[in-house]
Amino acid sequence: MEEVEVVVAHRQRATLRVGDVFLKVDGNPANADVEVRAMALAPVPTPAILWREPPVLAIAAVPGQALGVLGAPSEASSAAWAAAGAAIRRLHDAPLPPWPGRGLDDLAEELDRECAWLIANDVLPVEVVRRNREIAQGAIRPFNPVFIHGDLQITHVFVEDDRVTGIIDWSEAAPGDAMWDLATLTLGHEERLDDLLAGYGEGADREVIRAWWSLRSLRGSRWLVEHGFDPDQPGCEHDVLRARMRDA
């Protein structure tokens, strides 16, 4: 009898693993709609969809190991990181998905709101929030949209023998800023940015990637706290924000 493993669980969704099958339960069926459509369009390895019975989506496990985890050094080779960069480039060069992405005005409003919450609730020192808010502004600028994954966390990219074997969790895929994906994958792993860009090739803007590190960490902190996660663990979002103070 296969054991049931709870991979992640919070008020919005839960993911269970039973053997080589992942069961994703989401209260918003639109998320699964996007995930299924995005995986069909993406020119990179994705999990096989086994069946769907809303609110459950069943997908097969992909081979290999995650590129790393947030809060710990990545044990993946430089070649594996470069392979991830090449895979992301293929995605970004693909035709845009036929649904809208987020607007810059919405993003700016959200950033202001989250920074105000962090200060009002004494989550972080005021100077840390304000400095990162200044840096984050560099990500809110006009850009040419590409097909982005949208939530390209390090645990969502699987590699084996220095090749990408699967990219998972596509519910936030949309037209968007290429630098967002590159920043998300290297969040807390800044030392691997050179390896990633060696595979990605031309067109990456390091300053914008740094701005996205700050923006993602600022806008994600409240969600993490309210859903039972700790952004203050070593190497996680709050460390990323504090690191920007050392750069000043």
In words, what does this structure look like?
With 248 residues, the chain is an alpha+beta fold. The protein has one domain: Aminoglycoside phosphotransferase (APH), C-terminal lobe (Aminoglycoside 3'-phosphotransferase, Chain: A, domain 2, Alpha-Beta Complex), CATH 3.90.1200. Helix content is 43%, strand content 18%. It has eight helices and ten strands. The strands form three sheets. It has a five-stranded antiparallel beta sheet. A three-stranded antiparallel beta sheet has the order 6-8-9, covered by helices on one side. β8 and β9 form a beta hairpin. One of its GO terms (molecular function) is transferase activity. Keywords: Transferase.
| Helix content bin | 40-55%
Instruction: Note the overall shape.
Output: globular
Estimate nothing, just give the exact number of structural domains. 1
Low-confidence stretches: none
Draw up the topology in text.
Elements (H helix, E strand, L loop, with lengths): L3 E6 L3 E6 L2 E6 L2 H13 L7 E5 L2 E5 L4 E2 L11 H16 L10 H17 L5 H11 L9 E3 L8 E4 L2 E5 L6 E3 L1 H9 L6 H8 L5 H21 L10 H11 L1
Antiparallel strand pairs: 1-2, 2-3, 3-5, 4-5, 6-8, 7-10, 8-9
Helix pairs in contact: 2-6, 3-4, 3-7, 4-7, 4-8, 5-7, 7-8
In short:
The protein has 248 residues and is of the alpha+beta class. The chain is built from eight helices and ten strands. It has helices at 29-41, 78-93, 104-120, 126-136, 178-186, 193-200, 206-226, 237-247, and strands at 4-9, 13-18, 21-26, 49-53, 56-60, 65-66, 146-148, 157-160, 163-167, 174-176.
